[in-house]
Design brief:
The complex is a heterodimer of chains A (523) and B (148). Chain A has 523 residues and is α/β, with parallel strands linked by helices. Chain A has helices at 15-25, 38-47, 64-73, 89-97, 110-138, 150-163, 179-188, 207-215, 232-235, 251-263, 289-294, 300-306, 322-338, 347-355, 361-375, 388-398, 476-490, 495-502, 506-518; strands at 7-11, 31-35, 52-56, 79-84, 102-105, 141-142, 145-146, 169-172, 197-201, 216-217, 229-230, 240-244, 265-266, 275-276, 280-285, 309-312, 344-345, 380-381, 402-404, 448-450. In chain B, helix 1 packs antiparallel against helix 2 (23-32) and helix 1 packs parallel to helix 6. The chains are: A alpha/beta (523), B mainly alpha (148).
């Protein structure tokens, strides 16, 4: 793509001077505009921002320095070259102080003018490029995406890089990471943006209907085909065809898709002649496509046809503070939709959101925010409004007053919780705290012991009473009862929250309470 | 010890500041400086660097400037409008400098020597400028014709 010629604004009130400058610059391939007064120069620069300004200081309406101040105040960032007959040091210093990039004394030779202007344009181009790169590196929105993390910046760059091409794009990522958003971004950033974007979820369509959905059918092709039907391939002609969950596509359909990808032509079900279309393919799966190939569930030839430019969407837990950015945006949107008055999250609630692993990614975050908005109404979302699973996650990695306790403690009633045998020595082994954000699924958590006297970092429900650092081995049922009752005490007998803290089902708590009551162990 | 060497243009400019009314005497000194009508490093370079059409366009623009500015100078001198006189002289000096019309530039600078002064412009300056303007135009036209 050719770049437009640099735009030069020549501010000069003497026509001969202006004509000489224009003649000397004529063969540089510039777009030169001429203003004879400072006022006209200001209006011109604002209407059509130039890359460089050749500025005479002596102008009929007001001076060149004043014009420079006005230009800068209005945000004109052009490289300014002061051109004056006054070769004094004071004028040069003042010009530089006012933000001029260079200074030329009249009369000037062609070489002096062109070299100075080229230098200024080059510097200006570099400055612009730096600004663009900085903006790209720090952008927090990209088409439908919200996120400023480095991982997402890489995704944005890949999408931008591939958009103009016709190359197939293969998007991978866990469920809820925004694969369809990525496909739409590829389409919208491409020259096909004005043409259709057709999305088809291969996993949601019955196998028997998939071919008809993709390629269409003619009337009478099969029972129930009462009319001709245009398929997704035809609908996407000139645009983009997004095949989501392509890993779910049956092998026999993969053969037909391969032919379509290779030739651009397909045959509607029951038709006698093939049709040709111009379609750009974007595919997505939440599986590892190569593993699917190795397992024989995905054709290798089709894989290589489609897996041209991979885009891997990071899970939310690897996107740093993006979870909070997304939660804020969702809260604003959903509050508006639901007619609620939420304006933001409390710092504690944001910390809880950031600490959680979000195994369901953005979709899960969306559900949580919707849940909060539907069930509550306030200006600020407090931690108590969030689901207990988030609060537990918030306690684990971020509370500085908590230290992993020496090992042999049984985790509360969780079936999978490991029971660590007490070492015989006095110095017990210390369990390493596992950063929750790195875990794809919740794991049995270590027991933490508060370390006095630091105040708690979060205004969250306190943990059960301190456990002895030298463990006393008790019957499992005794420990279980003690932990459940402690959790209930800490949550003011709120069974649901106590169960959440213990990572067990509330019905388990009810069942245990009932059993202890029946046995007369509790009132 | 080296003697201070002043460029002819600078010398005349400085002289003009403090011997403002003595234009005729200054003019004779000016000629003693052996200043040519055109500065070859400016006018000659323009003729060399630019296509002939561009060079001719510049000369024609210069001619229009001269006509307009000498008229403004004459009118300002007649009405005693020092500011307009200074302004026109400044533009004239700039236009002359752009094409390397040295003697015309120097003459014009005499008219812009002291903008703040309420003293009338040097007598005979307008006529002198007109003469130099004609000389500059003739020299430029000759330059545009080429050596042949």
């Amino acid at each position: 793509m050719t770049r437009p010629p640099p735009r030069i604004l020549l501010v000069e009130d003497t026509p001969t001077q202006a004509e000489v400058a224009k003649a000397l610059l004529r063969d540089m391939g510039l777009e030169i505009r001429h203003a004879e007064t400072a006022g006209r120069a200001l209006a011109d620069a604002l209407a059509n921002p130039p890359d460089a300004i050749l500025l005479d200081l002596e102008l009929p309406d007001f001076g060149g320095f004043e014009l420079m101040q006005k230009l800068r105040a209005e945000g004109v960032e052009a490289a300014i070259i002061v051109v004056t007959a006054n070769a004094s040091v004071n004028t040069a210093v003042e010009a530089m102080r006012q933000g001029a990039m260079d200074f030329i004394v009249k009369p000037y030779a062609k070489a002096r003018l062109t070299v100075t202007l080229n230098n200024a344009l080059e510097k200006r181009a570099l400055t612009q490029e730096l600004k663009t790169v900085k903006a790209q590196l720090s952008r927090d929105r990209f088409f439908g995406f919200i996120g400023a993390s480095a991982a997402m910046q890489a995704v944005y760059r890949t999408i931008e890089g591939v958009a103009a091409s016709r190359a197939s794009v293969f998007i991978t990522g866990e469920s809820g990471t925004g694969k369809e958003l990525a496909a739409e971004a590829v389409h919208k950033a491409s020259p096909r943006a004005a043409k259709p974007f057709v999305a088809l979820n291969c996993g949601a369509i019955p196998r028997d209907l998939l071919e008809s959905e993709v390629f269409g059918h003619v009337k009478g092709a099969f029972t129930g085909a009462t009319d001709n039907r245009v398929g997704a391939a035809k609908q996407a002609d000139g645009g983009t065809l997004f095949l989501d969950e392509i890993g779910e596509m049956p092998l026999e359909m993969q053969v037909k898709l391969l032919r379509f990808v290779q030739t651009g032509s397909f045959q509607p079900v029951g038709a006698s002649r093939p049709e040709k279309v111009d379609v750009r393919f974007v595919c997505a799966t939440n599986r590892d496509p190569l593993a699917e190939v190795e397992a024989g569930r995905f054709r290798e030839d089709l894989y290589y046809r489609l897996y041209v430019v991979p885009v891997e969407l990071p899970p939310l837990r690897e996107r740093g503070t993006d979870s909070v950015l997304i939660a804020r945006a969702l809260l604003a949107t959903l509050s508006r939709e639901e007619g609620k008055h939420f304006r933001g999250f409390s710092p504690e609630a944001e910390r809880a959101i950031m600490a959680y692993a979000w195994p369901g990614n953005v979709r899960q975050l969306q559900n949580v925010v919707r849940n909060v908005v539907v069930l509550h109404d306030a200006e600020v979302v407090e931690p108590a409004m969030l689901p207990p699973m988030l609060l537990r996650a918030a306690i684990r990695p971020t509370a500085p007053h908590l230290t992993p306790m020496a090992a042999p403690v049984v985790a509360p009633v969780v079936a999978a919780a490991p029971v660590v045998a007490a070492p015989a020595m006095a110095e017990p082994a210390v369990a390493e705290p596992v950063p929750v954000q790195a875990l794809p699924v919740p794991l049995p958590e270590p027991i933490f012991v508060p370390v006095p006297p630091s105040p708690p970092a979060l205004a969250l429900p306190p943990l059960p009473p301190p456990l002895p650092s030298v463990p006393v081995i008790e019957p499992l049922a005794v420990m279980e009862k003690r932990l459940i009752l402690a959790a209930l005490a800490e949550t003011s007998q709120d069974v649901a929250r106590a169960a959440a803290l213990l990572e067990i089902n509330p019905s388990t708590v009810y069942r245990k309470l009932q059993a202890w009551k029946t046995a007369g162990e509790i009132p | 010890m080296h003697a201070l060497r002043l460029q002819p243009l600078g010398l005349c400019h400085r002289l003009g500041v403090w011997v403002e009314p003595k234009v005729d005497r200054l003019a004779s000194r000016w000629h003693h400086c052996h200043v040519t009508v055109l500065d070859p490093s400016i006018a000659g370079q323009l003729a060399e660097d630019l296509p002939r059409a561009d060079f001719l366009l510049i000369i024609n623009t210069f001619r229009d400037d001269l006509a307009r500015l000498t008229q403004e100078l004459t009118a300002a001198a007649a009405t005693g409008d020092h500011h307009s006189f200074h302004r026109a002289a400044h533009s004239l000096a700039g236009a002359a400098a752009a094409v390397g019309a040295l003697r015309l530039e120097a003459s014009a600078r005499l008219g812009m020597a002291d903008e703040a002064s309420t003293a009338p412009p040097p007598p005979g300056l307008s006529a002198r400028i007109a003469t130099e303007a004609q000389a500059a135009l003739a020299a430029l036209a000759a330059l545009a014709q080429g050596p042949g």
